[in-house]
Amino acid sequence: MRLLADQDLYHITIEWLRSEGYDVVTARELDLHRASDEDLLRKALAEDRRFITRDKDFGALVFLQNELSTGVILLQIKPHTIADVHLELKRMFLEHNEDELRRSFCVVEPHRHRIRRLFPSNRTDK
């Protein structure tokens, strides 16, 4: 799985993803830490990466400008829920391949994840 991590993602999450074998680049590493949300999504799309963030604003952006999405993963994570969210993220990646996540908006929280397909608009709760 190829991921572009937003600047708001916890460092521990980035390191955990890399330790699990995921190809993760960060907005900061690409000198995009001051880029607009739209530019971050365009970069993820250009590099065929799923965009992973803690910023809820991406939900509205993705659903208003559907063409910008290459798949967004929103982590509902706080310092005391990191381990549970990491486990659920791993479960989501095991249950859904990269193609399934490509045109989806995913919300990952402790003990569950939700996926809303952008085209077509089906919703799956797990």
What attributes does this structure have?
5 helices, 7-stranded mixed sheet, 126 residues, 7 strands
N-C termini distance: 20 Å
Using only C-alpha atoms, the radius of gyration works out to: 13 Å
> How many structurally independent domains?
1
**Strand order across the biggest sheet?**
2-1-3-4-5-6-7
Give average pLDDT, whole number: 90
Shape: globular
Order of helices and strands: EHEHEHEHHEEE
The stretches of 5 or more residues where confidence is low (pLDDT under 50) are: 120-126
Helical fraction equals 25-40%
What structural class do the secondary elements suggest? alpha/beta
Main pleated-sheet profile: 7 strands, mixed
Number of helices: 5
- How much strand? 15-25%
Number of strands: 7
Structural account:
This protein has 126 residues and is an alpha/beta fold. It has one domain. Helix content is 37%, strand content 25%. It has five helices and seven strands; from the N terminus they run βαβαβαβααβββ. A seven-stranded mixed beta sheet has the order 2-1-3-4-5-6-7, sandwiched between helices. A hairpin with a 5-residue loop joins strand 6 and strand 7. The C terminus is likely disordered.
